[in-house]
Amino acid sequence: MAQASSSSRALNAILPLIQSGQGYEAHQKARTFASRYQKSGQYDTAIDVLFQSARELFKIGQQGSGTDLTVFMLDVYDNKGEKVDSESRGRLTQLIALAGSSGSWRKTIIDKVIAWSARSGSCPSGDPDLHHYVADILYKEGAFETAELHYLAAGTRDSARTLAQMYVEWSSTGGAPGAFALRGTIPYLQNGNILAARAFITHLVSQFTVSRPKFVSSIQSSPIAIENTTFGTADEIVFTTDPLVNFAQLAVRTCQRSQGDKNKTMREAWIRLCGSYQGKGGLLAVKEVRTALNDISELYFAIPPPRAQQGNPMADMLSAMLGGGPPTRAAAPKRVLAPAPASGAPGLD
User: Fold this and answer.
1) Using CB atoms within 10 A of its CB, is residue 87 exposed (0-12), middle (13-18) or buried (19+)?
2) CB atoms inside a 10 Å sphere around CB 292
């Protein structure tokens, strides 16, 4: 209540200007008031003034001014040391939604928001909830390629399942199931996120089974039951007519049973799996994908990569699949496996 009271003087001067269509004057007043509050250490008051002013400016179509105040609010977040929580995140999701899809205003906000959440949250790639929220907006608008990157970065099982659903919809305009299977499975495995990889490929196979009558192979029409010692639940693989989908299913199951160089049986199974499928050529033999699999080999099975391998395999692979060349960048930090869920709670993210 103290925050609302201290910001009311500023808002009483700003909001009527917005309501009367004087967006420029309101924008300037909001910046002036917020700067004063910030300099005096009244960060919460500055945030409230900027948030409410930006929100109302967006509502009257003043995207430029609303974006400027949103970016200013993120600067105040940084100066205050604001952490990612439901309140700080909630302000941002409201403003992202109001920014609209026209022009580059929303993208500017999204880029700044994700960067702030990476600095101020627990996830180096940005807050998973923010990534998922942005991905959902883009998915609904049909911006599949951009949504894809946010679902992958979110890394939750809900995001993985929604990504699978989006791929099924995307594939209706062209593209084989196997290519989409790799687009989701390999990045999740590379990030050490076996839970997301498993949720993704399971849902993808389930959805393609329903949408494509000839997806399941007539050679083995019933699911193949396999032992699942990692999660303590029943497990199965669906034998499909797409070799890449079969590879993706087997890759996830093999990686989830890995123990570095301790489980020699799974280590050898992985080597045989990659050798067998890559020997057939196709997408798995593409340089960027081979490099990504080398990365997975090292992460899960302690198999050293070839000396020539360098850079960020996940980024290069995604870039190649999206139609661009491998980007130039510094080497990525060493990845680690995400911890398995606590016993008795296999369904939680």
Assistant:
1) exposed
2) 25
Helices (H) and strands (E) in the chain, counts: 15, 2
44-90 pLDDT tens trace: 999 999 999 999 999 999 999 999 999 999 999 999 999 999 999 99
b/e per residue 141-178 (b: at least 16 CB within 10 A): eeebebbbbbbbbbbbbebbbbbbebbbebbeeeeebb
**Alpha-carbon distance 258 to 122, whole Å?**
26
Q: How far is 34 from 346, CA to CA, in rounded Å?
A: 46
**57: its two tokens:** 């400016």
Please indicate whether residue 232 or residue 90 has the higher confidence score (pLDDT).
90
Task: Tell me the DSSP string of 114-149.
Answer: HHHHHHHSS-TT--HHHHHHHHHHHHHTT-HHHHHH
Read off φ and ψ for residue 225, nearest 5 degrees. -75, 135
DSSP 261: B
Q: Which amino acid is at 330?
A: A
- pLDDT (0 to 100) of residue 219: 85
Per the document, the length of the chain is 349
CB-facing half-sphere around the CA of 23: CA atoms within 13 A: 16
**Higher-confidence position of 56 and 333:** 56
